Amino acid sequence: MSHPLLEIKNLKKYFSYKGKTLRAVDDVSLSVFPKETIGVVGESGCGKTALAQTIMRVYQPTSGNIFFNGKSILDYTGKASRSLCYEMQYIFQDPYASLNPRMTAGEIIGEPLNIHKILTRDERHIRVQELLTLVGLRPEYMRRFPHEFSGGQRQRIGIARALALNPSFIICDEPIAALDVSIQAQIVNLLRDLQDKLGLTYLFISHDLSMVKYLSTRIAVMYLGHIMELAPSQDLYQTPLHPYTQGLLSAIPIPNPEIEKKKVRVLISGEIPSPINPPKGCVFCTRCPFAKKLCFEERPPLQEVAPNHFAACHFTRLFHGDAADPNRAG
């Protein structure tokens, strides 16, 4: 196996809030290999975006390290940190708020080239036209303003801007959440096509578990700042080992009324605990239908239960081999 393009080791990001500590990302380790897509899923507030923005150095990590191509990006300071922009880029959730309404599409896409003083003015003009074509828009659209585009077209502009500096790694922070369902499929297919053409590596954050399965090579399930399960996409959906993952997958509706009536549900009751005061043991213990005394007293490590399949649960081995697909008919 090749060396990781991005490697996160024991990453923590804490915020101070009214004299207390909010644990947004709490001891996350993850490796992302070249040309693969890591999907990150979980309920709102689980730390997905905090993890993404800490990787991008929007937030300075509280502790831990982030390596890109074997080098710690925390060592990059001042002008040196700008070189990371050539390798790492970000696609935002809101395709309207992330675009400057006073700039044309051409100015928005060409802004990274201007900031980094790449190419001449005429060459930048040509490059912007090429990027518009690459994301499925007409070159003449470069003179239009954001309000003149649909939501899907605006997101394509955001994708073109992210590609301007030819990065190898892109974080997609719920890039389809604000779009119509029909448009979501177009954007996901565009991301797949660009990955094939340009050899891109993605960290894809989403609430849509079906889209994550379609796009991702591996999937990390987050809860309260922790990774609860990490596995190849097919394995995670066929044999979810953590009760939290089982609950998330069992909530996916099946487009067949007869099977939908008979499927086994793993219900997750209650609310997510406060990240300011998380449970002492397993962070999921207060909502887990299978929790035992040990779960409330000791935090389970993320351990390999099956080949390339990791789960943070004291009793995962009891579920392994016996845990059925929660979407099955019973």
What would the keywords be for this entry?
single chain; 330 residues; alpha/beta; 11 helices; globular
Description:
- With 330 residues, the protein is an alpha/beta fold.
- The two termini are 39 Å apart.
- A hairpin with a 2-residue loop joins β1 (6-17) and β2 (20-32).
- It has an eight-stranded mixed β-sheet with strand order 6-7-8-3-9-10-12-11, sandwiched between helices. Strands 2-1-4-5 form a four-stranded antiparallel β-sheet.
- The protein has helices spanning 48-55, 105-115, 121-134, 151-163, 181-198, 209-215, 233-238, 243-250, 257-262, 293-297, 316-319; strands at residues 6-17, 20-32, 37-41, 63-68, 71-72, 88-91, 169-173, 201-205, 218-223, 226-232, 303-306, 309-311.
- The arrangement of helices and strands along the chain is EEEHEEEHHHEHEHEEHHHHEEH
| Beta-strand fraction estimate | 15-25%
Number of strands: 12
What would you report as the Rg, rounded to the nearest angstrom? 21 Å
* Largest beta sheet: strand ordering: 6-7-8-3-9-10-12-11
Share in helix: 25-40%
Structural class: alpha/beta
Question: What do the pLDDT scores average to?
Answer: 90
The residue ranges in which pLDDT falls below 50 over 5 or more consecutive positions are 321-330
Please give the count of helices. Answer: 11
Largest sheet: 8 strands, mixed
* Distance, first to last CA: 39 Å
Shape: globular
Quaternary arrangement of the chains shown? single chain
